[in-house]
Design goal:
The chain is of the alpha/beta class. Residues 1-24 and 88-95 have low confidence and may be disordered. The chain has 11 helices and 14 strands. It has an 8-stranded mixed β-sheet with strand order 7-8-10-9-11-14-12-13, sandwiched between helices. Strands 2-3-1-4 form a 4-stranded antiparallel β-sheet, covered by helices on one side. Strands 5-6 form a two-stranded antiparallel sheet. It has 2 domains: 6-85, 2-Layer Sandwich (Alpha-Beta Plaits), CATH 3.30.70; 99-420, 3-Layer(aba) Sandwich (Aminopeptidase). Residues 53, 176, 179, 249, 316 line the site of zinc ion. Residues 1-22 form the signal peptide.
Amino acid sequence: MRTVLALLAGLALLLHPAAAPADGPQATYVLRVPAPIGDSAQRLLGLGYDVVEQRDGTDLFVIGDAHTADRLRADGFQSTVETRTPPSPWAPRSVGDATYYGGYHTVTAHLAHLDEVAAKHPDLATVVDYGDSWRKTQGDGGHDLKAICITRKSPGDCALTPTAPKPRLFVMGQLHAREITTGDMAWRFIDDLVASDLTAMLDTVEVWVVPIANPDGVDIVESGGDTPVLHRKNAQGTCSAGPRGVDLNRNAGSHWGEAGSSSNKCSEVYRGPRADSEVETQALQALWRNLYRDTRAPGDTASATPDTTGVVISMHSYGNYVLFPWGWSTQKTGNDAALRKIANDMAAQSGYRAGQPGELLYNAAGATDDWVYDDLGVPSFVWEIGASSGSCGGFLPLYSCQRDVHWPKVRSMLISAMKATHKPY
Ligand SMILES: [Zn+2]
């Protein structure tokens, strides 16, 4: 049985500019690597390979170039070529500065969209600037970090205080820049919240959406135009032989530096020089602390109190999973039964599988969902949206897949998440 990462073939330029040799772009390979859950999978991650967030039985998948199979062999791993994507010429953006790759919205368009929705629906929506991206802090381009709060506004709603009256659902996309499905899901959610049957739910729930949590990274992705660059990390730092940046889903200060992350700056799972080192991480954490009460004592086994409200979703791709803490190990949280039930309810809407990362994929420490639950006690989930194969699978689905395939499933899961905010435990 083959779980082919077919979408990578024939679609992606897959060109990391920092990795390209002087003589031009190289072909990109997806390699199937036997690495069962446990020591083998953790060692593969620890060595800094670009491991896709997807598993097929005992196999994981590694993105690399013509030399990656040799490196794997030297490190004691077998591999077979799953797909090989030849280099293709640089392509222009589809339509001006608004979209790329058949309709995906640029960072600039996403930020403008938030302002447009708020201007058109002042009774429902408020835009909040919660920080600056790394490049903006350096005066070198970059973007404001922006969220939109959407609810049927009453006094106290959308205030940056954890004691606001309504329970809160927080949803973010593109923390991993190349997971372009997730930004599009955020866009559609915002539009539906202000103009569909979902609006009625806003009487009792407050929704916060960050469509692009890593705008510097997405700038790199969209710089490839109709052949997006598969950049995962932010844009901080340098690397002479690989992609620059810090993996914002390994940087958070909950068991930071442990399993499934790397100290190698060139690794796709580079965790940064210290816990919470990145401005994008710090800004998200400050925002979450302003939105949610802390209902959980420190430590790995404490339970959050039964009066906890709210849910936090970090959207990723791909693999069709609903994941919940802990991710740093398969140890159970103090709220395991409730988290598992909420995850199963979400998964029942979409046909996804639910479990801890280490149960379904591999252990990974320093993820934002672990941090949210660890620091605040709020139930937090990662959705790995989309299959690994087919024209709607992989990192770069055809744009039409968003409306026709992914959105109906994600919309149902979002409704499930909104309902869970009232009394998750
Ligand atoms: Zn991801």
